[in-house]
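Milestone M4 deliverable, item 7.
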Amino acid sequence: MRIMMNGPGRGALPRGMLCFFYFYFFLHWGTGLFMFRHKLGFTYESVVRYYRGDPELFMNPRSFAGLLEVTHFHLFAMGLFFVVFSHLLLFTSLRPRLQGALVGLLAAGMSGDMAAGWLVCFLAPEFAWVKLGSFWLLQGTSLFLLLSLLTSLVKRPFVLP
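Output delivered:
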């Protein structure tokens, strides 16, 4: 509980754990870019094609059950990601207003990213712009958070237990 209230500390073990977590997240961030490019693509047309299908390319539209399954997993994973990064952000030297803005941007990017697929598939293809914008907002905000957290970790004095 003390760590939850006061931060991870300055010892070797907490710093090592955070370094590994940040490295792991950076790999996750990078593979997310590649996966998005490979599966959906970075253009309006490619996002619409992914969700609505393309008979000329023999691509089926995403099904309700398929979207539900992906959403179910992402709600948990994104929620956990949100809590962890928002919590760690509290221990940086960033101004509280900037911290609040980053948390809001992170929430907006995650929510838009998860909702946009449903909107493209079942409402209108124009929501592909929301998918692309939300993806880039999420990627940009999470990269900025990661760099802020790494900077904070490097600036804190290192103390062996």
